[in-house]
Amino acid sequence: MAKKITERTKDYSQWYLDIVREAQLASHSPVRGCMVIKPNGFALWENMQRQLDDMFKETGHQNAYFPLFIPKSFLSKEAQHVEGFAKECAVVTHSRLINSEDGVIVDPESKLEEELIVRPTSETIIWDTYRDWVQSYRDLPILLNQWANVVRWEMRTRLFLRTMEFLWQEGHTAHATEQEARDETVRMLEVYRSFAEDYMAMPVHTGLKSESERFAGAVETYCIEAMMQDGKALQAGTSHFLGQNFAKAFDVRFQDKDGKEKYVWATSWGVSTRLIGGLIMTHSDDNGLVLPPRLAPTQVVIVPIWRNDEEQSRVLEYGNAIYNELKDAGIRVKFDDRDQYKPGWKFSQHEVEGTPLRIAVGPRDVTNNKVELARRDTLSKEIVDREGLDRYIPELLETVQSDLYRAAQKRTANQTRSADTYEEFKNLLDREGGFIYAHWDGTVETEEKIKNETRATIRTLPLKPEKNPGKCMVTGKESPYPVLFARSY
């Protein structure tokens, strides 16, 4: 297959879109701002979903499902929440279509008594439900997660990174005490960090968001932030301590052990198909997609090579035996014996689609009891013995996984710097991008000035700040510790 991938150094944005297209991950849909996730992309999302779901359940959470439609009045009950999402809401106003001379039109007689919001997030409808579920401390905690789609009416979209409709999970928990809720918020942040680093091989910074960057309706927002190859940050997951804001808005109270009536404490947390965009921009190269083996839908592909019928029979038998052996070893392996495509075309396809390892077998390999083994991440090849592949391949996959993480970790470290002055800060941003530690005076005014003048935002405040006093790079006012800035997606 002919590759049509723009070089990263020439046009990083186009390179990203080329990878999505050529690796057959997704395409634009007839609805502006929405995407069609193709089988390759959805298989990747399923692996992410499966692993995260296991991690959620290991921490005591259960899955549930709540309606896609939310009564408009619900969003009015929590002031910060409605303010944060008002400009992104899709609204259902009528329930029926009728035929006309110009085709179907909205039936004016079907106007809803109360308009419905297409779910941008589910706090409001879930907390209205929790009111019926919670009466006593015995009903707590509630540890629920929902796998769903949401709609946020974005004006500027990019496949996976920002679309009007996207897939995600959203956890919503209810607790008897503030400390329990705070512990839950940090625990789920750690789940996200572990998933990003251990499975996506994507190093992240963890921390708190500034007040202006918090989730609408949250008391505190925690996040994981990753650095992409072009020097821009990507917010890859968030965990929110909601305090008692939603419990008070929806009157969710319980009777504690002493018989006193109290409001419930809350958290919410989520990641989305944006993670696929982060995966692409963390590891991929000018040849196509590069996938970490722990998430790759196909970890190993076997490509047979023959010239005549006699060779075909020997090679297919040899390749099939390897396929069954690797499959029995628990490896996600594919035997690409399609005879309508030449081996070179298959090599190119699997390379652009990011399959971590490729095994090529030909007549000489059958005779010598060998295989040619190629790594996608390094594009290196080696001839190895056929015997013991079921032991060697799992070890090599783990090596690829750890090598990808170390490479991304090294790049992130090289893209993380410090600035003492505003001029130095601006020069670093324009010249190299990346993360920049700098002192900030803690005011919204200074934060907005930096954002408006440089397009950089505070990505994280430290979780456990150590005293490292200095002067704000903009105002010269006292600052107890530096914070992390970057331009971002």
Question: What's a concise summary of this model?
Answer:
With 489 residues, the protein is of the alpha+beta class. Helices cover 35% and strands 28% of the residues.
State the helical fraction.
25-40%
The H-level CATH homologous superfamily of the largest domain, spelled out, is Bira Bifunctional Protein, Domain 2
CATH third-level topology of the largest domain: BirA Bifunctional Protein, domain 2
**Number of helical regions:** 14
Major sheet size, sense and barrel closure: 7 strands, mixed
Going by CATH, the architecture of the largest domain would be: 2-Layer Sandwich
How many runs of DSSP E, i.e. beta strands? Answer: 27
Structure description:
The protein is α+β, with helices and mostly antiparallel strands and 489 residues long. It has three domains: 24-69 and 126-283, Bira Bifunctional Protein, Domain 2 (BirA Bifunctional Protein, domain 2), CATH 3.30.930; 300-396, 3-Layer(aba) Sandwich (Rossmann fold), CATH 3.40.50.800; 416-486, Translation Initiation Factor IF3 (2-Layer Sandwich), CATH 3.30.110.30. The chain has 14 helices and 27 strands. The strands form eight sheets. A seven-stranded mixed β-sheet has the order 3-9-10-16-13-12-11, with helices on both faces. It has a five-stranded mixed β-sheet with strand order 18-17-19-20-21, with helices on both faces. Helix 2 (39-58) packs across helix 6. The longest helix is centred in the C-terminal third of the chain and has 26 residues, at 389-414. The radius of gyration is 26 Å and the shape is globular. The mean pLDDT is 97.
